[in-house]
Amino acid sequence: MSLIDLTSMAEPDEEQQENIEETLEALKEDIPDFCYQCGKCTSGCEAFILLELEPHSIMGKSRAGFIDELVNSEEIWTCMQCFKCQERCPQDLSPVGVIFALKNLAVASGKEIPGGYQKMLQSVLGNGLIQQTKEVLNRANDTRKRDDYDLPPVPKPEDMNKVQQILMKATQEKLR
Amino acid sequence: MNIMRELGLYLGCVIPTEQYAYEMSIREVLPRFDIELTDLYGATCCGAPLRNINLFTTMYLSARNMALCEEKGIDLYAPCPICHLALTEAKKKLKENQELKEKINSKLKEEDLRYKGIIELYHTLDLLHDVIGLDEIEEKVEEPLEDITFAAHYGCNTIRPNNLDRPDDSENPQKLEELMELIGIETEDYPEKLDCCGGQVISDHNESALTKAGEKVEAVQNHGFDGMATICPWGQRMLDSKQDSSADTIGESLSLPVLYYIQLLGVAMGIDQSKLGLELNLSPVDKLEAIEGIEEVE
Ligand code: SF4
Ligand code: SF4
Which of B46, B139, B160, B168 has the lowest tally of Cβ within 10 angstroms? Predict the structure, then answer.
């Protein structure tokens, strides 16, 4: 099931298309000419060595207009969200922010997104949290439950159905 | 500071569903500093993981959780740096953008909630270091941990991005070290201190995430530290809970005790270990002779 099936319900396609185009335009404005491709972001990128993520090349490609290619790439899904690139960019740019925007765009265009994120979204829609309460092991390999520790019940919205409905609509909204 | 301070305890997702030791120690330690923790029962995910899907939804969920706390007229304590960052970002963006705030409030209205933007946000690090303060903590230390040297693991979102009011400096954080020294633990900077644990990509890039965690533990171990202290549930999950699988992934043998700082503080305050969830640390914390009476869990 794609995310669109999960969230859009009866959203008219036209509106969806407009949405995507607007986000795309906004994204272009965000990808400034100020990136001078110094590569500092990539030099400290936590996902560079293991997953070959190159934030500077994402900045470069976006500026050159290869948004569609990026939206369809696997590389945008390797970011570890460490915010080092944003912190260290001498031009005060945010490659990680651009990567988030590209991922949002991928989702809005109905692209297949990695399973982990799908699962998280489904769980948040279903019970408000990214995962259900788990049984864990202690050092002796015995199973332990939350209840074993006298902890109060896990927070949960009183009316999950209502929150779910609001969330379904929220996932169709843009930030601006 | 002897006035009782009431804070909304916003646990997020990972803490109440699996990182029980963090929650137990928080509930055990903080009230001894006159902090009253009030649970936010209607709370949900902070929205941070959904940044990858839709930024508006993240903003909405963050605002919703803050609104729940504002309703009680108290400030909010988020022990997870990832939640703390998402909430801080939402607070800032909604202050700058009234239009967005209204748009979000129109959705919150369906649940009779309203986000006003009057809330203060705390994480474990600034709550201990800046609000309670070093003097107050020192007074409560009964059994300082001696002759051990620990490495600090802050967690990426605790310190970055700096423009979103983080609890400590982005490139040279020292508060956790100061807190450790306060309870007798020696500490030192090390080159990998700011390295990421890989936690955010664990579901889709399992091997790479475990490699990140394993390499950090290995480095800390090779530097000769006796253990590592964390203040992030995602970091603890990667460096402690998954230490064995990280070791398998990088093909090294890892045996580094990793504990939440607040567990160590609890031990130094003489709190019963069973109340600090010490049996739930999966790394070999029983190696630490400095923790008196720590037992191998049989
Ligand atoms: S650090 Fe900044 S200026 Fe340098 S390549 Fe990265 S985004 Fe561009
Ligand atoms: S936030 Fe993502 S892109 Fe930026 S340095 Fe970290 S892993 Fe790399």
Answer: B139
